[in-house]
Amino acid sequence: MKDGKLNEKLNQFADSGRLRKMIMIAGAAGIALILLSSVDFTGCAPRERNEEFSVKTYSTEIESDLESVISRIEGAGKTKVLLTMENSVEYVYLRDSTTKTKEVEPLIRGVLVVCEGGDKPVVVERITEAVTKALDISTAKVCITKLSE
User: Fold this and answer.
1) What is the pLDDT of residue 44?
2) From start to end of the chain, where are the E strands?
3) Alpha-carbon span 146 to 124, nearest angstrom
4) Of the candidates 84, 30, 28, which has an alpha carbon nearest to the alpha carbon of residue 56?
5) Could you tell me if 124 and 101 are in contact, meaning their C-beta atoms sit under 8 angstroms apart?
6) Taking the chain (149 residues) in consecutive chunks of 10 residues, what is each chunk's mean pLDDT?
7) CB atoms within 10 A of CB 126
8) pTM of the prediction?
9) 91 close to 141: Cβ distance less than 8 angstroms
């Protein structure tokens, strides 16, 4: 008995045009949600990389970060860092398209660290470990030496 009443109510609901309106509203809401998902609500403009990406700026930022961290390692003292990069940023696109799929950051060829404690084996070991872990490079790419006065 209850199934009959339910079917009757559904048929009345469908015949009245309400179902069509609800489907239209649900569709419009779905489209609105899809469009809103691409909007950045954080209040700051999205960080876009353009073709003017500078390897020099990228390496300078890493150098200054490393200098700051290494100078805080016990025994390191005053520190200077030099980075050498293998290539510039590489952009990967879909075949026959202008749609960028990913960016490959420049590879680090080597790191030179010159610091006051660069002649002490314990300090050299600490700095080498910090640099290799931070940049995910091998110890063969890191050179640490004493800063001359």
Assistant:
1) 47
2) 79-85, 90-93, 100-104, 108-115, 142-146
3) 9
4) 84
5) no
6) 73 72 80 72 49 71 92 92 82 74 81 93 93 92 90
7) 18
8) 0.57
9) no
CA–CA gap between residue 86 and residue 110 (Å, rounded): 9
For β-strands 108-115 and 100-104, DSSP reports them as unpaired
User: Which own/partner contact pairs does 133-142 have at CB distance under 8 Å and 24+ positions apart?
Assistant: 134/66, 134/69, 135/62, 135/108, 135/111, 137/108, 137/111, 141/108, 141/109, 141/110, 141/111, 142/110, 142/111, 142/113
Q: Looking up tokens 């930022």, which residue turns up?
A: 61
Vertex 38 angle, CA 32 and 40, to 5°? 115
Tokens of 57: 């700026």
Q: What kind and span of H or E run contains 25?
A: helix 18-36
In terms of Cα–Cα distance, which of 149, 138, 147 is closest to 75? 147
Q: What is the DSSP letter of 78?
A: S
